[in-house]
Design a protein that fits this description.
The chain has 143 residues and is mainly α. It is built from four helices and two strands, in the order αββααα.
Length: 143
């Protein structure tokens, strides 16, 4: 009889603890970031950026469209692309997981504002994320 009382008592305490505990935490809002497509249909030109965090950067940190002139963006992109392509072509010196593809960017083609804006912001994002400097201005991201 004493064992039965102890068993009922332990069961009661176990049920009380179980009902008072918090439910397990579940992260049911797994959001998968969609790739950013940079395209100019009239030129049949397209860049797809699948780097996680770029969409968030573009929507929160990047200056809004129209902040920079197209000429400014084109000039910066030309400098960034030159440095980027150099690093792609030197995989023993630079991380080939970051610098995977050559970017075919010509200063003689008008890619339009949107392509230049998103490409410029990808370079800015990559410098922050990977703490690198693509050679323009102070070494602000590699600290």
């Amino acid at each position: 009889m004493k064992t039965l009382k102890q068993l009922i008592y332990l069961t009661f305490i176990g049920v009380a603890l179980w009902t008072c505990s918090s439910p397990p935490l579940k992260n049911t809002t797994e959001t998968k970031e969609e790739p950013v497509v940079i395209a100019n249909d009239s030129l049949e030109y397209e860049i797809i950026i699948i780097d996680p965090g770029f969409t968030t950067y573009l929507n929160t940190i990047a200056k809004p469209e129209g902040f920079y002139s197209q000429t400014y963006l084109e000039n910066k992109n030309q400098l960034y692309v030159t440095t980027w392509n150099y690093r792609v072509r030197n995989p023993l010196q630079f991380n080939s997981n970051i610098y995977e593809n050559v970017i075919d960017y010509s200063p003689h083609i008008n890619y339009g504002y949107e392509v230049n804006y998103k490409l410029f912001n990808y370079f800015e994002f990559a410098q922050r994320k990977y703490r690198m400097n693509l050679g323009i201005g102070a070494n602000r991201y590699s600290r």
